[in-house]
Automatic annotation (TrEMBL):
InterPro entries: Phage_phiKZ_Orf197. Keywords: Membrane, Transmembrane, Transmembrane helix. Pfam families: DUF3307. The lineage of its organism: Bacteria, Pseudomonadati, Bacteroidota, Sphingobacteriia, Sphingobacteriales. This is DUF3307 domain-containing protein. The chain crosses the membrane at residues 39-67, 87-107, 122-148, 169-189, 209-231. It comes from Pedobacter polaris.
Length: 233
């Protein structure tokens, strides 16, 4: 990855997350395009590019990213609602990164290498990662459905599903990068967090249900990861 792209990304991270107080965000959402903080925010983004590159030769890049950033932020402020703030946050960041990559490619004549798309191992790795999300969650739910305790404890909506997905993806990453010891730390960490709940519940069925689900989740992740590592295309 070229240093120019890293510098542009650094400017974005500093401008969007370090040099934008929460009070500015609140004012922008309240006043939208009438907020002075919106335009100050854009000036800071452009100025950071000059500072990080330590040159005025990047004025075209700074101007393009500044204007583009303003258009993206204005679109977010105009169209986002209270219920869609989370979605718009990710859309906003994806568009900013896409703009940065486009400017890097255009102004610095940087080739974008998509050769990895022809790599069989990449598609196999992607398939394994995708399987460990919702498909694996469905398999586990079907297998342990008959053991669901009658008085299951209340929790955040779909929290268990997303916790399982994250733990399987972490195990997948650890095994595929040959850091098997990290899997043990993850299992130990989850056991510590779960110990208090299970101890207070005084419910053997709930304990067994959690253990079955956890071991199934870890087992599936390990099997998929080992299969990806040892499968020769």
């Amino acid at each position: 990855m070229e240093i120019a792209l890293l510098k542009l990304l650094l400017a974005h991270v500093l401008g969007d997350f370090f040099l934008q107080p929460n009070a500015w965000v609140i004012e922008k959402e309240d006043k939208k395009l009438k907020s002075n903080k919106l335009y100050l925010h854009l000036v800071i983004h452009s100025a950071l590019i000059f500072i990080i590159f330590a040159s005025f030769d990047v004025w075209a890049v700074a101007l393009t990213i500044g204007l583009g950033h303003g258009i993206i932020d204005a679109m977010k402020l105009m169209f986002q609602k209270d219920k869609t703030k989370r979605i718009w946050f990710f859309v906003d960041q994806i568009l900013h990164v896409a703009l940065i990559i486009a400017c890097w490619q255009y102004y610095f004549h940087a080739p974008i290498n998509l050769g990895f798309l022809q790599n069989n191992q990449f598609w196999l790795f992607l398939l394994g990662a995708l399987f460990l999300t919702s498909p694996a969650a469905i398999f586990i739910r079907v297998i342990i459905a008959k053991w669901i305790p009658e008085k299951a404890s209340t929790s955040l909506q779909d929290a268990g599903k997303f916790i399982g997905i994250m733990e399987r993806l972490l195990i997948y990453l650890f095994v595929c990068t040959h850091h098997f010891e990290a899997v043990g730390f993850l299992l130990a960490a989850k056991s510590i967090f779960r110990f208090g709940d299970l101890k207070d519940a005084h419910d053997i069925k709930l304990t067994e249900y959690v253990l079955i689900g956890t071991l199934l989740s870890f087992g599936i992740a390990l099997i998929v990861a080992m299969s990806v590592l040892n499968f020769n295309l």
